[in-house]
Specification:
Layout: E1 7-16, H1 21-36, H2 40-53, E2 57-59, E3 62-63, E4 66-68, E5 76-86, E6 96-104, H3 110-123, H4 126-134, H5 138-151
Parallel strand pairs: 1-5, 3-6, 4-6
Antiparallel strand pairs: 2-3, 5-6
Helix pairs in contact: 1-2
């Protein structure tokens, strides 16, 4: 799977200002609603419910929240770069400023797991994270994320 099949250029926000994990997840839900035609409140609640099972803050300032969303026909990604990191209860206790949310169709199964693994591998790259932290332009963010993904097909 390539990130180009999951991430749409219009599902990227750079330099977003929020004060909490909950607000960050609301931003993800708002982008999903606008781009995918899903209900923002439903997406937000599903992401919050998933966080109650354990934080999706994977460390190094990165979070990969994910949820199954009714009405989707394939996997979709939403990327948000926060202006200021927020407490996210990450595994390394570091605040999060890079969020790559994955929204899967109901019963996505292994596709969902493969996408999570791919995103985690891509965002584990220190140089990539440093580049993303300097970028505000969604087109530039998209180019960096999909360029890395295309050279590392899963």
């Amino acid at each position: 799977m390539f990130l180009t099949t999951v991430l749409d250029r219009h599902a990227i926000l750079g330099n977003v200002s929020v004060n909490s994990k909950r607000q960050a997840l609301q931003m993800v839900a708002d982008v999903a609603a606008r781009q995918l035609g899903v209900d923002a409140a439903d997406v937000h609640q599903k992401l919050i419910d998933r966080e109650k099972l354990g934080s999706t803050g994977v460390g190094m300032g990165v979070a990969v929240p994910h949820a199954e969303i009714k009405g989707l026909d394939r996997m979709h990604g939403v990327f948000v770069r926060l202006e200021t990191p927020v407490n996210y209860d990450s595994i390394d206790d570091a605040p999060v400023d890079l969020i790559f949310a994955l929204l899967a169709p109901e019963n996505a199964g292994t596709e969902h797991l493969r996408a999570l693994a791919k995103v985690s591998r891509v965002l584990r790259q220190k140089d990539l994270r440093e580049q993303l932290r300097k970028m505000e332009n969604p087109d530039a963010i998209y180019a960096v994320l999909t360029g890395i993904a295309d050279s590392n097909a899963a």
